[in-house]
Write a structure and sequence with these properties.
Elements: H1 3-10, H2 17-43, H3 46-54, H4 62-85, H5 87-111, H6 114-139, H7 147-174, H8 186-205, H9 210-216, H10 230-239, H11 241-270, H12 275-290, H13 293-303, H14 305-324, H15 330-358, H16 364-392, H17 395-421
Helix pairs in contact: 1-9, 2-6, 2-7, 2-8, 3-6, 4-5, 4-6, 4-16, 5-6, 5-8, 6-7, 6-16, 7-8, 7-12, 7-13, 7-15, 10-11, 10-16, 11-12, 11-14, 11-15, 11-16, 11-17, 12-15, 13-14, 13-15, 14-15, 14-17
Length: about 425
């Protein structure tokens, strides 16, 4: 922490905290809209661009997979930077890496290099890592009883970018006509510019840094560098049953969602659905993921984190049952995907809030980075396995497999709840 940052953080008095919380939330919501717009604009045509560059449809799925892998790999280095220097440097660097990755993707498409394209897509994933970490930045200064709502507002802001992004992909593609850039690479050129704007907004407006301010307001015994190390974050998660439950919740919810969602368009097409109907189903799914996040946050704050996790398990179980038994019913599939989005939202918000609640303040950034690493690594594996399950069995079996993931999560949640009911130590 620089002397200027230390002074700014220490100068925050309790009476200034409400205004500071509102301003930080507004900045994070703005960057979340921009970041979500950039990610959605680029990712909308990622598989199409990969097919054009590689020349084969069988490799088209590697582009989004590379993005997920990049998000996972970069989660811990970004968490280490935030642990050492605060949220602002970490978010700025993540958006800058995303901008460079989008630019590399454009270059790769122009020269026809598939390996370079995958490298660009992996770096592009840094922007997704920034969007995910932003939800934790919103929780840094939030009151404990309103922490889930603070997280949920940032998640909700993604709705705007996620909805607008695919709709501007076409004009973004047309904008590069005559520049020697493939049409499918146009959205990545736009995404690069959007990420640069996001980095500038964070650098200029996210002051004072929420994480550094929270540390300055913490008790003196929590100020040691050892307490803020990556090892301390991992140790804190390992030592707390509630923190472990939080990490598992977010990972399972994200893996189940990505696995089922990624193969739904294939199943719909197999049953005669056109691209317009597929787009409508996915749009409904995205609405379920983001638009109702504030409701999930309010429920988690009022009813408790464990109740929010129980709601997530119930919604996800209902979703895979409805989608898995839909057969050729497009309407039933749409309902299942919408509920799947709601379950993901409940799991992400409640799990993220529980993790923040359950580890000491100095170790939170490292623990949160670990959570995002596990979440994205699990989803990457789940997405890859999903294709194999559908190819070798069916979409129904994929949903059954996703349901099986919920069993250990439900068991862990019940175990944690039973320990609390008996008044046993929770490890946090």
């Amino acid at each position: 922490m620089t002397a200027v940052e230390r002074q700014a953080a220490v100068s925050v008095t309790p009476d200034r905290l409400p205004a500071l919380r509102r301003r930080i939330s507004a900045v994070l919501i703005t960057t979340q809209i921009l970041g979500g717009l950039g990610v959605a604009t680029g990712i909308a045509l990622a598989a199409v661009l990969a097919k054009e560059v590689s020349g084969t449809e069988s490799l088209s799925g590697l582009a989004p997979t590379a993005t997920v892998a990049g998000t996972a790999v970069l989660s811990m280095p970004l968490a280490a930077l935030m642990t050492a220097r605060g949220r602002r440097p970490g978010l700025v660097l993540a958006y800058l890496i995303g901008a460079v990755g989008a630019g590399v993707t454009v270059v790769a498409a122009s020269v026809g290099s598939f390996p370079l394209l995958l490298c660009g897509m992996a770096a592009f994933g840094a922007a997704s890592a920034a969007n995910l970490q932003a939800r934790f930045a919103a929780a840094d200064l939030a009151e404990p009883e309103r922490r889930a709502r603070a997280i949920s507002l940032v998640v909700w802001a993604t709705t705007i970018g996620a909805v607008l992004g695919p709709n501007i992909a076409a004009p973004a593609g047309r904008s590069v006509t005559g520049l020697g850039i493939p049409t499918a690479a146009g959205p990545f050129l736009w995404a690069s510019g959007i990420f640069l704007i996001s980095a500038v907004v964070v650098a200029l407006l996210l002051r004072p840094d929420p994480l550094l301010t929270a540390r300055a307001l913490a008790p003196a015994e929590e100020q040691s560098p050892a307490a803020r190390s990556l090892r301390a974050g991992v140790t804190a998660v390992a030592a707390s049953p509630r923190a472990r439950l939080a990490v598992v919740t977010v990972a399972v919810a994200h893996t189940a969602m990505v696995s089922v969602m990624s193969m739904t368009p294939v199943d719909l097409a197999h049953h005669g659905a056109g691209i317009d109907l597929i787009g409508l189903v996915i749009s409904g799914h995205i609405a379920g993921m983001y638009a109702f996040a504030p409701l999930m946050g309010r429920l988690s704050d009022r009813l408790g984190r464990l109740s929010g996790i129980g709601l997530a398990v119930g919604l996800l179980a209902c979703a895979v049952f409805v989608a898995g038994t839909a057969g050729g019913s497009h309407g039933q599939t749409a309902v299942g995907l919408f509920i799947l989005g709601l379950g993901w939202s409940a799991g992400l918000v409640s799990g993220s809030a529980l993790l923040t609640d359950s580890v000491p303040q100095p170790a939170r950034a490292a623990a949160q980075g670990l959570s995002d690493l596990v979440m994205n690594a699990s989803a990457g594996i789940g997405g890859a396995v999903a294709g194999l399950v559908v190819a070798q069995a069916s979409y129904a079996w994929l949903n059954f497999t996703a349901a099986c993931l919920l069993v250990p999560l439900a068991g862990l949640a019940l175990f944690t709840l039973r320990r609390r009911a008996k008044g046993l130590p929770m490890g946090d």
